[in-house]
Amino acid sequence: MVLRGVVARLATLAFLASLILGSLPAAAGSDDALSVYMYDDTKRLVSLVEDAADLVQREGEAAFTEFAEKGARWFTDEFYLFVYHIDGVCAFHAANPSLIGKNLMYLSDMNGKPVIRFITDIGLQPAEDASGWVFYFWEEQTQLNPSWKTAYIRKVVAPDGKTYLVGSGRYQIKVEKRFVELQVKAAVQLLKTAGKAAAFKEFQDPASPFVFLDTFIFVLDKEGRTLVDPAYPTLGGRNLSQFKDMIGARPVRDALAKLAHADHAWVQYLWPQPGRPVPTRKLIYLRKVDVDGETLIIGSDFFLATPIWLKVEDGEGWQKNQPG
After folding, report:
1. What is the pTM of this model?
2. pLDDT tens digits, 130-142
3. Burial call 166-197: b when 16+ CB within 10 Å, e when fewer
């Protein structure tokens, strides 16, 4: 049984690497690909890495000299670039050149996430331009407390045939709907592939990709009762269909009604956010999946960074400025 558990864990990690970290479309720097993101800082980060990867594809390691020039586009107060080989050896690091040449595969964040492993796993994808996001809880030099950092990674093959993982990250990035969609879809696929026991364990593990940017994956039964509930790990079976927001709306009940006729649903609601004097909109994304004859609802939610009066297009192609 112990060996079986180890094998299942290894299979789960390999599956997560292939599904989550390498699931973005090719040519993510194009206008069409950038349109999936809501916020300009996300788009700037993606564009920077994509353009840097294109330069490495043309010039190979010669591009690193340009990346190291402080004050140029590649190295500013907002962004800097790093590059890894597939084996975890740092090929370039603008902010910390002392890391170059070192194998950092062992490096983990403060929750135990294997950060470099997640980065290099993108290089194992078959596409030469595979890309993905890595989220990790890290120490920010200028702050008293650690915070979330988000890195965009692009695989690239240089003219000499060497494969590199080019990336850049930033602290306090806004949560994108795209991030949540990818994680929930990955959670659904993991349930189908690994089964409930292995998947539920991953969803609750702070070192897994499913805990990110102060949000997480939860699992409900078809009646809206919690099966996986990281927000209240000691409570089981909360009935979230009865949950009401600040104006009396029932977002989970409304989402379950949508899921009666669809495999996924977005719903908005109003909730107080720490440090803000007025209610803030949250979005819930839910997907329906059948596992061993049981219908499960997989979801995640997050605070929108946009003002409450600003219209936001949801995942189903329409806009509204009221919770629903």
Report:
1. 0.85
2. 999 999 998 876 6
3. bbbbbeebbbbbebbbbbbbbbbbbbeebeee
